Amino acid sequence: MKWLFFLLLLANLALAAWGEFGRQTSPSPLARQEIHPDRIRIAQQVSAPVSAPVSAPAAAAAPAMSCYRWGAFSGDALDKARRALQSLRPSIKVTERSLAKAGMLGFWVYMPPAKSKQEALENIRKLDAKGIRDHFLIQETGKWQYAVSLGIFHAEDAAKRYAASVREKGIKSAASAKRDGGEVEFLIANLSESAASGLGKLDFPKTRIEPVACQAIKETASPD
User: One fold for both 63-103+182-224 and 106-180?
Assistant: First the structure.
């Protein structure tokens, strides 16, 4: 019976060896698939989009700063103008210049001072009736109080001609003369255009604010 036992053992070993051989030589499902070289495509690598560098927002453009001449002032108007400029400090630099010392007084055409404010207002009504609307009542205390300014001129001949034209319209008291001292103008540096426009809209008749070269201010005046 031993030979039968060994015979069955050998048969089992041979069957196991055959099964292992079959598993090793049988192609896998993937290997059995037909390969078509003409259908092969090389996949392109898709790169993530590169974000553009984020730039910092541009700073808001600073308002352009310029230099201006504002005047002329005297009496109460001068103090009022000083207070207006004080509200713009410390960003601006202001110099006061005496027009008498600067030799820039020029000439003016005027109606002499009236005895009272009521009389001065009556003079203004006469001017309006004649179509002369460019005038300014001087109310500051002093020898020119209640006089009416009709215009300021750089040249004496121009002032005399205008005074004559006013007299021809019936305002016989119109006269021309060299302007008195005591008037001041402001030289302003580092003033923005919008601030200059605001000053020009304040209630200062017969004054002007106009741009000037900043170098001219440096040469003719010192900061206060």
Answer: yes
- Residue 179 contacts residue 170 (beta carbons within 8 Å): no
CA dihedral 180, 182, 183, 187 (to 10 degrees): 140
pLDDT digits (tens, 9 = 90+) for 70-110: 988 877 788 889 999 998 988 899 998 887 766 666 788 99
pLDDT in tens, 105-138: 678 899 999 999 999 999 999 999 999 988 888 8
Reply yes or no on domain 63-103+182-224 having CATH 3.30.70.1150: yes
What are residue 152's DSSP bridge partners? 108
CA-based R_g, the chain, Å = 50
**Count of CA atoms in the C-beta half-sphere (13 A) of 43:** 3
Tell whether omega for the bond before 57 is within 30 degrees of 0, i.e. cis: no
For the domain covering 106-180, report its CATH number: 3.30.70
Per-residue tokens: 24: 């090793």
The answer to whether residues 115 and 146 touch, using CB atoms and an 8 Å cutoff, is: yes
| Reported pTM | 0.46
Q: How far apart are CA 29 and CA 14, in angstroms?
A: 27
Q: What is the C-alpha to C-alpha distance for residues 69 and 186, in angstroms, rounded to an integer?
A: 6
